[in-house]
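Practice problem: predict the structure.
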Amino acid sequence: MELTSQVYLLAYDTDRHKLTCNGYLGHVLRAAALTELLQLGALSDADGKAQPTGVGVTDPLLADVLRDLAAAPKLKSWKHWVHRAQTPMFRAVQQRLVDARLISTERYRWLGFFPATRVKVHSHRLVSELRSTVSRTLSASGAHPQEGALTALAAVGEIRIAISRAQTRERKQRIAQLVEQAGPALPALRKVISDHHAAYASG
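Answer:
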């Protein structure tokens, strides 16, 4: 399963039947896509900027992201690309999971006025398995690159349903190792979320 889809499902609270990280999940998904492109060799780091390598990808969602980077007139920072188009990314990942019949969505009006979407994950077992993968990776000394990236994204992306604040403090060194292994999209995500929190606090 694609890293973006894993992140989306990992952020689902199976007890409350709702997504967490709603304010910035799109940014976490963007970072996941960039990380996966890096792992596939389609992106490289050029002095803190994301650079397409010319390697193509078959996944439509990743191909769209890659085309966006390639069309830019000049190289831009990883933070720029993590921050960009978070809402379309969220919708694209959600629609892919709907098409795969892993989730279903229902439009409704919150408090009778505000448009909102109710999400239902059909396999709680799948979410549980992803949480177990993160927990195992957090405690291990080594990790498969995708599992390591998923765990790093959960930590930096503040997916508290998967990694609590206490675990983040206790496993700080391990998380730092996983973030470094996952690549430059993760520090960029940390800065984007920090900016998000600062903007929310001030406004």
